Amino acid sequence: MRSFVKKITGSVIVLLFCTLFFSSCSGKKAEQEEDGTAALQPLTGIVVMPTVVTKEALGMVLKGDATRAGVATFVDGILRDEVGGNEKVRMVTEGQLDALLSDASGGRLSQMKALGAKLDANAVLDITVTRFREREGSDISVKSPASAAFEMVLTHVESGVVLWAASFDETQEALSSNLLSLAKVKSRGFKWITVENLVSQGMKERLADCPYLQK
Description:
The chain is α/β, with parallel strands linked by helices. The chain has helices at residues 2-35, 68-83, 94-100, 108-119, 182-187, 195-208; strands at residues 46-48, 52-53, 89-91, 123-133, 136-137, 142-144, 147-156, 162-171. The longest helix has 34 residues, at 2-35.
């Protein structure tokens, strides 16, 4: 009887140890996936699509102010400066995109697959600007501050899975309105910046955080 109890007790201890061990391993794996260290997919290349600027992005602008095409060109320029030197990145213009997809059919994912096959890439980066409002005023004082918002999405072309995404949404505030923004206000020279400066800073920060764009 005692021998039987010892065997049962020993089995329970072994079972408990295994449960704790595998639970610990599972927990570590989950933590790794959460911080992105174990979730990165090997990429042969990344196609950066031409920036899309929504119809509502500029709001009610006056004649001679920024145009959607001008904003797209500006943002594409930032991207080219920041990631154009990465050997895995292939930036395409509207004209190039039309030519590359002239014989492509199907939905969005099918087109991405066709594009990836032609450019030896298995991921596509989309950028959409949803707000681009210039300040009303000067460096010293404004009636209305610069305001901008955009989204960035990196998609795996074979599976359609989003590998990485980031967004930016900011309207510049005065230090008196938010004391917690001291570091940001200081980095901007304690002045009201333009919407170009706002977008440029935001985009550089987001791109620097993308693990797939690290050289």
